[in-house]
Amino acid sequence: MRTAVLGFEEINMSQSIKQFTTGSRTATGGTTSAAVTSEGATTIAITGAGNAGIVKAGDVFTVADCFAVNPQTRESTGSLFQFVALAATTLGSSGEGNITVAPIYSAAHALATVNTLPATSKAIVFVGAASTQYAQNLVYHKDAITFATADLLLPQGVDMASRQVHNGISLRVVRQYDINNDRMPCRIDVLYGFSTIRPQMACRLWG
């Protein structure tokens, strides 16, 4: 583990980093085949991305002249917005298809994600070469993901029942005599849940 590197509070190494294999779509050469005209739209129509190519869920791509915005000021960051395919799509013979993405909002909307909605005939560029595996490193703020545990009920009429909280994790320990097998079993339980509550504060770093 390293601390205070490149502005990150912690950098940890893991042997369990997930790998992502891109779809067989072409990385470049595609264009939008229709303009996105409504706020909150969830599909982008493309063409020219490879005969019968596949856009996999998780594939990332940009659209020319469609820039990410600061969520508070709604001003362009100067970086093209990276769209993520949410579902797999098999393209047609001309490399055409409709890609499902998260809702798209222009700078005129309170939930702005891009400076302007994707226009027609704009170049599409996918991140990564076709059918290639990339490590998916994670970069996130500590508030992006929440892990929570709940206090479990302490049963009565047992030899011992205790509940302790360590580092925010609630653990219950129960011990009771087993008259049939002449044993004293002990069990430890934890009830937990986790969720990405602020996805905009986390991202995948391909490498």
Q: Could you explain the architecture of this structure?
A:
The chain has strands at about 1-5, 10, 20, 30, 40-45, 55, 60-65, 65-70, 75-80, 85, 90, 95-105, 125, 135-140, 145-150, 160-165, 170-175, 185-190, 190-195, 200-205. It is mainly β and about 210 residues long. The strands form seven sheets. A six-stranded antiparallel sheet has the order 10-7-13-4-5-12, with no helix packed on it. A three-stranded antiparallel sheet has the order 3-14-20, with no helix packed on it. A hairpin with a 2-residue loop joins strand 16 (about 160-165) and strand 17. It is elongated and about 75 Å long. The model has no long low-confidence stretch (mean pLDDT about 95).
Question: Short description, anyone?
Answer:
The protein has about 210 residues and is mainly β. About 0% of the residues lie in helices and about 45% in strands.
What is the gyration radius calculated from CA atoms?
24 Å
Number of H/I helices: 0
Shape: elongated
The helix/strand order is EEEEEEEEEEEEEEEEEEEE
Low-confidence stretches: none
**Helix/strand/pairing class, anyone?**
mainly beta
